[in-house]
Amino acid sequence: MFEVPLKRGRKFLNTPGPTNVPERVRNAMARATMDLSDPEFLNASESCFDDLKSVFKTEGECIIYIANGHGAWEAAIANCLSPGDTVLVPETGNFSNSWADMTESMQVNCRTVMGDWREPTSPEAIGQALADDKNHEIKAVLLVHTDTATSITCDVPAVREAMNRAKHPALLMVDTIASLGTVDYQMDAWGADVTVGASQKGLMCPPGLGLVAINDKAKAAVKASTMPRRYWDWDTRLMTQHYRRYCGTAPQLAIFGLRESLDMLFEEGLENVFTRHRILAEATHKAVDVWAQAGGIELNARDPKTRSVGVTTILTMDPDFDASQVSVMCRDEMMVALGGGLGKLNGKAFRIGHMGDVNAPMMYGALGAVEATLSYLGIPYTPGGVTAAIEHIAEFKKSAGHSTF
Amino acid sequence: MFEVPLKRGRKFLNTPGPTNVPERVRNAMARATMDLSDPEFLNASESCFDDLKSVFKTEGECIIYIANGHGAWEAAIANCLSPGDTVLVPETGNFSNSWADMTESMQVNCRTVMGDWREPTSPEAIGQALADDKNHEIKAVLLVHTDTATSITCDVPAVREAMNRAKHPALLMVDTIASLGTVDYQMDAWGADVTVGASQKGLMCPPGLGLVAINDKAKAAVKASTMPRRYWDWDTRLMTQHYRRYCGTAPQLAIFGLRESLDMLFEEGLENVFTRHRILAEATHKAVDVWAQAGGIELNARDPKTRSVGVTTILTMDPDFDASQVSVMCRDEMMVALGGGLGKLNGKAFRIGHMGDVNAPMMYGALGAVEATLSYLGIPYTPGGVTAAIEHIAEFKKSAGHSTF
Amino acid sequence: MFEVPLKRGRKFLNTPGPTNVPERVRNAMARATMDLSDPEFLNASESCFDDLKSVFKTEGECIIYIANGHGAWEAAIANCLSPGDTVLVPETGNFSNSWADMTESMQVNCRTVMGDWREPTSPEAIGQALADDKNHEIKAVLLVHTDTATSITCDVPAVREAMNRAKHPALLMVDTIASLGTVDYQMDAWGADVTVGASQKGLMCPPGLGLVAINDKAKAAVKASTMPRRYWDWDTRLMTQHYRRYCGTAPQLAIFGLRESLDMLFEEGLENVFTRHRILAEATHKAVDVWAQAGGIELNARDPKTRSVGVTTILTMDPDFDASQVSVMCRDEMMVALGGGLGKLNGKAFRIGHMGDVNAPMMYGALGAVEATLSYLGIPYTPGGVTAAIEHIAEFKKSAGHSTF
Amino acid sequence: MFEVPLKRGRKFLNTPGPTNVPERVRNAMARATMDLSDPEFLNASESCFDDLKSVFKTEGECIIYIANGHGAWEAAIANCLSPGDTVLVPETGNFSNSWADMTESMQVNCRTVMGDWREPTSPEAIGQALADDKNHEIKAVLLVHTDTATSITCDVPAVREAMNRAKHPALLMVDTIASLGTVDYQMDAWGADVTVGASQKGLMCPPGLGLVAINDKAKAAVKASTMPRRYWDWDTRLMTQHYRRYCGTAPQLAIFGLRESLDMLFEEGLENVFTRHRILAEATHKAVDVWAQAGGIELNARDPKTRSVGVTTILTMDPDFDASQVSVMCRDEMMVALGGGLGKLNGKAFRIGHMGDVNAPMMYGALGAVEATLSYLGIPYTPGGVTAAIEHIAEFKKSAGHSTF
To answer: What DSSP line would sit under A169-188, residue for residue?
Structure first.
């Protein structure tokens, strides 16, 4: 929009990924590279494969790719499906659509259960689509747990129940890229067969690792797949040699970073991590609700129960206003990076990330910058959003005694 | 106060020193140590001695000690004074008192011009004390530019003028530890003979370097001094060999950090640095003024013109309340470190630092945490302080176009 | 082999990848993550795509994958070939075999031109295999420039000439993972259509980036390919949006590392980089030749002209001796990590890496540890290898005046 | 000597301080600054004061100055002596002379027991000087344990015994700046009253911390001292408040570095640390002995029992040759920094450091560069020095089983 002048002080990162990398993770990665067979590396690597299971809450297998979340998406497709297969994609927002788009590039057909981007796709509609699939052409349901474009988190157990009710054998594949490590996710208990994740959101690492967790049903599906693959191939990835597990050279420093972030998650306790995210998200919603009283903006997710704990999508109400100004201005003038509107919300929304290594004053800073940006851009807003956030958090802390943020 | 639980996210550092070390400075120091005669080091060192002059605004000489600000204080005493000498110390708060205390340990007598800690010491009273010193027993005036205990910045040119009017030959020694790099300071134009500084405040470096700038009059004073000294001695410190300049092994990594921080100051432009500090200080004052409407707290510095741009001292009004709770609670529960009350303000005040590598959202975060702490501790306050700060900064940015924060 | 005790001092990394990451690259990566659309990142990224062309010496396009070298291999296959196609693979050692193995997993047939692992595959034999392919079933020749298992560098222009002589339309795909940035490679001038590389060898970055350079003929091949793909797909990777170029979230910190390593390569000058590698390699060969006089070991590559400048494979002559002891002992007891024998050289060879950010005393250290290991393990050797290396380098420096190592 | 071209690979640091800072120490310091009263800092600081006692092997008190070793020297003088006092300084080389020079600047008289720089000062001569001091004018003996200029380590217990035999009440002050953490030093058992140290040698930290350990007799001496002082003053330094212990702002990041280095020393085990230094020193001596056969150079320390384990001084025999060329050339052309000749050895010697975080291949690298420099400069030498070093270390490892280097 304009030339960006030199700025001082720390940039705030409130995009919904990449998120802030904690000092401990950064330093864990700021080490010398080493022999790929160095026991120091092998021990770290081995333990990451093990401990990721506790994060996914599965007894299945975890696989770590040098890749981003899209790579992990492709891995799920490449291993469980064959060209010509069909999958069902409940529309949750831009990311369900992107996964479907990728799936079609892999020569797999997609059927979509339409959604309106302000509510989760109805489990009933999903169940109906499966019930209608008498011949069981649908091989998998591709479900995005939290779609960061809409900031809606869907109800995975309800979808699983709908699948069960339809007595449909399709695999349930869940994308938790934007939810893992921010909100409870129980792969085994909830009946997911494949779960996809990534390093740069709730796991507080730099981008660069794609994650997949699979159960026995998913492993069996590999045998039936005719998709050409090696890099993504689970059979070789599940071998014992680390050179095989990474299909070549391991992402050594990234693994030391992941090791540190897992330690941090376990030290804090996953339940505390989830509570921290929930309270900070609620505080953000309180702030937006105050600002919204003037009619210029509105939370995208209608039902509070469906709102993501990691990111909040806010609609701008003036149809003639280009909402992309908000994130550009906030980043270039206020030192806080937000997310913009994606897909059909492009130019109509902005997004505040509050996931990963984040605490209360970091959110006050980000919300303060948003309030200043609303003022700066002349968007109608009621002042006092940050005050509402502060009071919500102060109330929680009073009631909870100590907290982790 | 209580056991501190594990916390997540970035700790906010709003003490008035040490301040936040920018990533660039940290990385400049995260390098391999090297031969003390390595040209890479010698060039960095040489240029620091030169460029510090632009920060002090002097044509005199700069000296860099491996020490803290107290060390630089002692250097000023050890070089310009002799046991049995007398100095005049205008009371500005806890730090003028500490400097006087150190001076007496050096066997130099101190006369104090009393102050009330809420206004700068009167230049008239200083002038009178000098006029009363007919025999010119007073060898130096020891003036603290910004006393971080009271957060009052005094008027150096006015003190110089009072000295001139009294036609008194005393040296003017100014402590700019808490002001250098945050607000304009013009050593030569203002007539200071010795200026003392340190690395860990406006200069954005870790603690570990004490700085002194001296003019010819100060250099001449060394010849008359009988104080035993070598480590602090300016004569050897002004030699050309770097081994002499540091009186032994140089603080190599700290110098690379200082080099980077000087680059950052010059890139931003000192005037922009000062404006940034001023606006963030004003925003802090606006926030406190809102909170103060309920009568529970009050700004210590009565006259807005005398308020430090780097730190704000806030009095708690309830005489039965232990104000040290504020900084402890804010740090342990809200993730924001504040300063406590010092000297006679111990238990009666807390302090918010806003100096060095700081920007608007960092201040919203800190102020939000303070507001939450007031709520948490039940101190009467009017909500909306952060809102006032946001509006002040947004107005500035609207009027200024681009800013550096 | 045995429990590894605590060790002090710097571990030497003389595996042929990952190589030592220079301090500058490490610090370039030790920065805060940021918005994916932050101009600071986009500028770094854009310039990497451009500047990699100078490293590959091509006017074609460069693609950066979050992946390792195996991922880049798969990208070459997935874009230019279709299931059922056939390729020709000259056997250079373990890595040609691995690439072939991956190719077959992608449902592409491999014909191998056999090699003996101590000489490069004969260009004549390659030409003959192509001439025999009257129907042009072979769609591509997959050539490993430097096979780190054998430490032999093959003559790419000679292979290209053999293809031309056979008037065969196959694509020439060259793996430069272990050679790029260590020895001259001229993609366009030598007639390669696809070149594969990776970050963790001559480019001095941590593992995590796979690189591909392609010309127009390769781009055209994508249109004909029926291979299911998206993550690897060149059509989307060549779009202008960086989100497309990385197929999702960019490997932000790794890109800042690559940016720094490219700056370092250009500052030193590629020709100087190549000379440095050559002299250090020759010094290594001199050392081995001295040790080998006792008959216990031998250089694998018979012809000095074919020896890699980045890694040296050394055979142990006693058929009953398990050569894997050498690298284990050298790493665990001597603090220097070597490579082991791979494929059919497993247990029969060890490898000394000398690529990337390496200089003369680093090699003296590594060679000294190898000499000590030969002594420790009782392998017959003639002492004085390091002396020979020192003399070779001293002679070069005397003749060259200044050098870059 | 000439313009230094760009160099690649890691610079070797073989000066006798500063020494290599291990990755762990560097990362311990690459952390955010924090509130001076943050429990995380206070705990680290407290434990450093405690654990330093185990390094000095004393039950006395330890004091940590923001200063270098010269600062710690001055602290010893300023606390235990008064202007007009007299001390005895056994001449060990340049550093005994420098300490004496500083002492005289502090208005204390020095009597020197002359030494020839190639043998330790004779304990008998020291005893005689004390016996001659019938009136006990000598208040302290200032003894340098290892003088890095001569690389001679003196026999502290023998000096103590000479003092005892003379029944002289002088304090024994020992400078262990260059020996602490490299060789056994037992402050209490050996009867030292004051010990001086620094961070940047055996303690593997960057320069910036001066250390002093004192016993009750030294504490008592403070009461009698009339030296003006505050920064160095032990009475205030021994208070409980950390703000007092550091006389102002603490060197926060340096303390975290020291904490890590102490952990590393204790993990390795002090006895192992000493053995490691001894073997590497012996290997260096072996190398020099081989080179010296050609008559161009010679070890300075005649008696092997007196040779420092941390640094080796080597004389050049040609009186017309300027030995400073060796260290300049080795640093600028061979990437290895050595020490030059100091004091009367200026231009006549060079020094190889082997202290701190150092291991065998690091020494092979340094020695290889020295051998290449001898060749480059045309200094007569017998090749094979590195070979001798390798063999010495290999023999040790064979006999010792596992070692820590």
So the answer is: --EEEEE-TTTTTTS---HH
